[in-house]
Amino acid sequence: MKKIIYVTFFLSLFFVACSNEETPEPEFDNNNIELSLTVNNYIKNITKAESDGTEEEQTVNDLYVFLFPTTGSQTLIKYYISGVTFTGGSWNSSTKKISLNLTQAEAGNRNVYIVANCSTIKTSLDGVSAIEDLQAIWQTVNNPWSANITTPLLMSGNKTHDFNTNYQLNNVSLVRALAKVQLNVKLSAQHYSTPVVDSKAQYSYKYIDFDKNTYVFKPSTKTDNLVSSNDWTAWSATGSVSSYTLDQGNVTNLTLITYINERDNASSAIEIKLPYQATGPLPPPEFGDETYKLLLPSKIERNHWYVYDVEI
Length: 312
Fold this sequence. Notes:
- The longest helix is centred in the middle third of the chain and has 5 residues, at 122-126.
- It is built from 3 helices and 26 strands.
- By secondary structure, the protein is mainly β.
- The chain is elongated.
- The protein has a 9-stranded mixed β-sheet. Strands 4-3-26-14-23-22 form a 6-stranded mixed β-sheet, with no helix packed on it. It has a 5-stranded mixed β-sheet with strand order 1-25-24-17-21, with no helix packed on it.
- 4% of the residues lie in helices and 44% in strands.
- The protein folds into 2 domains: 32-117 and 152-176, Immunoglobulin-like (Sandwich); 179-311, Immunoglobulin-like.
């Protein structure tokens, strides 16, 4: 018997002094420029609370930095960073600070774009010559769910900054390119069972209409490239994706955590299959397992953490 669960969801006065004496210009030091990064918190769906996620979800292993021109006299400057030192500067992963061998005058006013954890798409990023090119770069995973998608996560961020005014650009916020779904299921007695009966897993799940493509920067319209699980996956006892708790040998709670790509259209879902144990004098309406379908939001947004607490 299939059942569907719907989960609805910023006058100061400026005085100019009149004087025959000119005010001296402030000294321009022309320092080498620095950039610092932060990883943006997840936005949770129900409470709109923020969470920084796990340590692994904040990890930055490598970076591509683009300093796009804001005037016709400038040219694009870019750096790929995968170690403490690189051609053009240095990187401190613990403080998330980039120091470039580029002076304030050389940098000027720039549109700064950063892509993190991007080694698998470096070749595509090598070819970027304009901001628009970044929206046309993505990576594809044929089975786009956990554990096929795992940390470190693709991230990106951007900021416009005049390095002539300040040699430091602080807190470029990196946003994860994916969302995360967490399903917490509290079972009623009718669905209690040992995890395995006669060599058959009693609790399993499927992914429905997950998008294969993870974009560096989301385009204005994202075309669907969907896939679903071919087979049911058995719930693990203590896995990183799925887990369950036992009481006197019976499963009483289920947890499932997976990453999912952003999507503009409805139909993404997670199906779960549970055993049914009749408790009354009459048989259940249908014999065998029961299947439930959790419909995910019609619009799935990057860097969101969708948490569902369900009782069945």
